[in-house]
Amino acid sequence: MLHYFDVEYGNAGSRTHEYGTRAKQAIEDARRLVAEVVGAEADEVTFTSGATESNNLAILGLAAHGEKTGRRHLVSTAIEHKAVLEPLEHLRTRGFEVSIVAPTSGGWVDPDALAAVCRPDTLLVSVMQVNNETGVIQPIGEICSRLAKHGVFLHVDAAQGFGKQLEPLTNKRIDLISISAHKIYGPKGVGALITRRRGFTRPLLQPLIFGGGQERGLRPGTLPVPLIAGFGEAAKIAGSEHMEREKKIRAFREQLLTALAPLDPMVNGDPDSMMPHVLNISIPGLDSEAAMVALKSVVAISNGSACTSATYRPSHVLQAMGFSSDRIQQALRFSWCHLSSGVDWPAVRDKLQVLKR
What we know:
Layout: H1 2-6, H2 18-37, E1 45-48, H3 51-60, H4 63-69, E2 73-77, H5 82-93, E3 97-101, H6 111-116, E4 122-128, H7 140-146, E5 153-157, E6 176-180, E7 191-195, H8 225-240, H9 242-260, E8 266-267, E9 278-282, H10 288-295, H11 316-320, H12 325-329, E10 331-335, H13 345-355
Parallel strand pairs: 2-3, 2-4, 4-5, 5-6
Antiparallel strand pairs: 1-7, 6-7, 8-9, 9-10
Helix pairs in contact: 2-8, 3-5, 9-13, 10-13
């Protein structure tokens, strides 16, 4: 990234000189590296500012096609990120009908329940790969199988799973994939929307912004070459170090669970269907807001999504899973990576023990 900030500062859209040519090559190299992680073609990758923008482009970008064809029905789940639920709600105000499927108590959505609400006029099914609050993995492969003979577009918000759970995203039934670079330890402020072809046809998206023609006109604007180059490098490393990283992440998880076991934590979500880098637990008798304040000098944790942490509202994910208000109020979300180390777990446990009523 520093090389493209300081040395190669060319604009990838400038075709008349070498500076632009080298910048464009960096973009295309990164495009190929990102595509390889999910088995896509390089020209199926559209760079964005992150998964939030990608989600909006995937959902709102299909609206004109839905209006033109009379397919005004959308399907999603109650545990999606707000970057999916809010664009869907916007389309509801434009005359679209939205069906929201509730999860099981384990935090995953039944593929049969999802397929059952699809209709001939269904335009889009949008489902996340891994829930950002609980770490519960959604059955993407089974959902793809249920929708194999349906013409609906399938969008997967893969912010939490891209580069970590590799195989599900290679399924060719997935039409649209949203990703963020920082979730695989690349730079913040860049991501991508992968738009897979069916045969020779791409999903019929319309841009949300206009001017410039970059990214095939789907996402115009000067491309941030250093961020995209960093994204490509992060994608390459994530693919090659996947197994080594997961081993370290699982070991960290075991340390956490062992240390907190005396507090009788309740795991929020099906432990058998959970990514190893996120853990959501409720500790009886504990107020999560007080716990976060007490632990801020020891660990940085949350009780929900970072995107909704400015003001406290009960987690819509845990509510959808059917948990009581007490259990939701007691919930703490831990997340970590292969670089996380050196946590004083006895200090964490002792501080939480003092707070238990």
